[in-house]
Recover the amino acids of this structure.
């Protein structure tokens, strides 16, 4: 970096907020994209390094930084907490990594209008706890809540575990302060037409979120959890659809396929507390001791791939695991009781078996644990990833089948259905696989994603539901957008013709 | 128009879909913008005429028309049913008026995914009836439903009477086929980021909607209507807020201020059916015979303005009209019963008096009547208009007071609160006034709008909630958008640099 540029940057943020230290460069050179985890396991930490890390404290500093970058043709990448799993923050053209975490204050909240104004570098859990102390909630509970920021939520159109009731991040935001790629600072709300929605989900390619006004809600008076078992995933999905079309809005909707049910129920025992009578769980526990179950399941991937899928698929079916649906209702006591009864009616009509409250309560207790288990898979020499895609109800089962079929020779695949809406639902696939060495692991990893997304798009699914696009899905996003991508390009052209802002993401290509 | 251009247009749509007849030119030279009604009353029908009217039958024809317009620098204006009240379809630079009403088919509907694909020139009531015949509803009931099109709904971000449950048009649309101003045809859905929301509400300045995929719902099993009287409008508004923050979602929420309550209750008698005991209604009926009430109220505007406001304001208060809140709950029987009980609890705690079902049922029966009454005001030599603006709960009463104060020397003002959301609510003001002649009527009309919108923006309201912007509010919209307007300009620049598509609307200004 030229010395004049360095001095200009230092004069904006001060020496304590500027770093070229190799430790920082390495630390910021990847996020939780499993592909970079495979590389890091092999010792390659800096495939995508920035030249410097900056920690601006507000939109004004950020604006001056971006204007300098434009003058010097220097690319820049936004960074929140680095929990993204699609390579949304990797610096493919070097330049600056701009960490937003010093913008971390709750500026105000107001119960009357149900809004809070928050700086976008705030950690998700800290934001929620701050609101909770004031009897409020954002209603946003991604499994990454401990290691993610509001800016990341907005950048990726994040969804939390209660999205069926509270919506996704794009539904939670009412207006935002954004620093556009040319350094101009704009406040964008939901006017007519609504340009805010064109920025939410743009992953830093059209600007950085610095402040946002969010919808917040009173803490629920009552929460009712319920587990219901269906014979198969198609019937469970139908129950979800009928529940939603009846006007019922559960806070939580999670339907696990056979393998995922087997994992979920086995992991569901509360410590120090006897289980309620639960035939499925007991049946499974008699066969596989709980602690060993996770290892055993993943061992399919480690030792038996590519035929592991067949074994993993058959096992739970032979055990009669069925498919577990977890519902939660929260809000006013009278209303949630009515909702629960109405939902149970629908489930019973479709042959659902009421498992009572324990499966849901067990899930609630461990609801953030799954993300932390994945690293063990990597430690064991294998790899795992998750793919969340959405589709309309009529194509849900074809999508489920198509993706599993596409990966049948490549990975153990399990799935749950955890974000349901009026016209459709998302499927959250988890795949685990392995290969003898790093090169073949990367090859298999890339092949898995290509096959899975090709299969998904062929059935008509979206490229992503809530993890975002990043580098990983950029080309598939462009296929999904089709002719409509021109609108996105027009915005990019208007504010970042030189493609400096988070290069390569969302399929923007260099014009120079 | 040059002969070669005329021949090219004729070759695209055929002679039966092209007109330069003076009768057509006059018919399409205005919509229901009251300002043009004042002009028409004085004999001026063609302040804003087009050179020709075209009726394309699909996106392909429309695309070819727009490409020709671009070649010839000819402006063009989209036209649905002409029910807009802000001059959104007036042709300030001549050119072509493009009527979309031949694109009027329901292409498909699907109960499983709760979606329907519809051509955007379809009439609102015909669309709803088509869905109803198949046990479905769009849930969109604007008072213009008989004389409006889906394209108009999308262009203006229309809201219907059940918007608190079903949302506004921007919530109802899942994807759309749009012909951009340069003639390119794009399908835009709610991908990431979401550019569809940047087109919904753009009033034809960024493209024409030709087809849309809409969310549709099963017809409700039960509908419960309830009237509740509050002592004043602030308490009624507080009840609405608390109801929504409790997670209750009424289909209808309508709170009338004192004058509007007086009008609403007086108009509320069902023909041939005795009223339930209703003290307020009876009190008013004893004083003013129902049929004469409307005339009497408007006579304030005709004869007493500018002091009419004071009289109209005091009258209902002296009569003790109070403020009527109408709620409706619809959906599954068990759920709506629970919602109604929970809402009544909240209302009772705030001193609301339960008036039973009759006020709501009376409203339902006459719910589209009000729009048709307005023309009588013009026949009588006066004028009236409505202004719908939204604001957060904390500023609702200041907005109500500010607008009334701004107009106190100009018009009789009444208001109701009919679209309520998590963070705020809209206010629907009706103002009636008069002036001795056309010139002074126009002057007063313009002054009323400037004062009202200036007052609204000063308090922090939106420029429009669901009528749109048109010519009427273009400058105020730009003030509301502030720095964020640059994003809109970038899209315009990308596809309509020459400002041919619906010139002058949304505050786009010519660059040539």
């Amino acid at each position: 970096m030229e010395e004049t540029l360095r001095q200009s940057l230092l004069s904006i943020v001060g020496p304590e907020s500027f770093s070229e230290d190799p430790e920082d460069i390495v630390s910021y050179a990847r996020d939780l994209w499993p592909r970079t985890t495979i590389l890091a396991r092999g010792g390659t930490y800096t495939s995508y390094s920035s030249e410097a890390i900056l920690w601006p404290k507000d939109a004004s500093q950020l604006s001056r930084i971006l204007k300098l970058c434009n003058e010097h043709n220097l690319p820049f990448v936004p960074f929140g907490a680095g929990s993204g799993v699609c390579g949304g923050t990797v610096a493919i053209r070097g330049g600056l990594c701009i960490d937003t975490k010093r913008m971390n204050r709750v500026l105000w909240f107001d119960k009357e209008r149900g809004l809070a104004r928050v700086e976008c570098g705030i950690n998700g859990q800290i934001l929620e706890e701050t609101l909770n102390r004031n009897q409020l909630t954002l209603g946003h509970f991604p499994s990454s809540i401990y290691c993610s920021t509001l800016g990341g939520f907005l950048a990726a159109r994040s969804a939390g575990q209660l999205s069926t009731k509270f919506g996704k991040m794009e539904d939670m935001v009412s207006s935002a302060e954004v620093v556009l790629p040319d350094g101009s600072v704009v406040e964008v709300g939901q006017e007519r037409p609504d340009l805010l929605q064109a920025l939410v989900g743009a992953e830093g390619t059209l600007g950085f979120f610095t402040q946002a006004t969010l919808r917040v809600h009173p803490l629920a008076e009552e929460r009712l959890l319920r587990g219901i078992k269906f014979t198969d995933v198609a019937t469970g999905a139908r129950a979800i659809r009928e529940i939603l079309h009846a006007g019922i809005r559960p806070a939580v909707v999670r339907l696990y396929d056979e393998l995922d049910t087997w994992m979920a129920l086995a992991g569901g025992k509360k410590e120090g507390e006897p289980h309620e009578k639960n035939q499925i769980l007991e049946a499974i526990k008699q066969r596989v001791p709980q602690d060993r179950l996770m290892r055993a399941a993943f061992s399919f991937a480690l030792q038996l791939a590519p035929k592991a899928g067949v074994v993993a698929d058959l096992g739970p079916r032979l055990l009669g695991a069925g498919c577990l649906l977890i519902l939660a209702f929260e809000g006013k006591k009278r209303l949630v009781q009515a909702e629960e009864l109405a939902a149970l009616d629908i489930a019973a009509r479709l042959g659902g078996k009421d498992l009572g409250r324990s499966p849901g309560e067990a899930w609630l207790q461990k609801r953030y644990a799954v993300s932390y288990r994945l690293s063990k898979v990597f430690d064991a020499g294998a790899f795992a990833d998750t793919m969340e895609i959405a589709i309309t109800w009529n194509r849900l089962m074809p999508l489920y089948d198509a993706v599993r079929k596409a990966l049948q020779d490549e990975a153990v695949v399990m799935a749950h259905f955890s974000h349901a809406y009026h016209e459709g639902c998302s499927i959250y696939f988890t795949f685990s696989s392995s290969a003898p060495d790093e090169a073949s692991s990367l090859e298999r990893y890339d092949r898995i994603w290509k096959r899975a997304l090709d299969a998904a798009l062929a059935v008509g699914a979206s490229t992503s539901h809530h993890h975002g696009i990043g580098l990983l899905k950029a080309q598939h996003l462009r296929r999904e957008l089709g002719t409509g991508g021109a609108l996105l390009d027009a915005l990019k052209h208007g504010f970042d013709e030189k493609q400096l802002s988070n290069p390569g993401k969302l399929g923007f290509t260099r014009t120079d």
In short: The mean pLDDT of chain A is 89. Chain A touches chain B through 72 residues (CB under 8 Å). The longest strand of chain A covers residues 383-392.
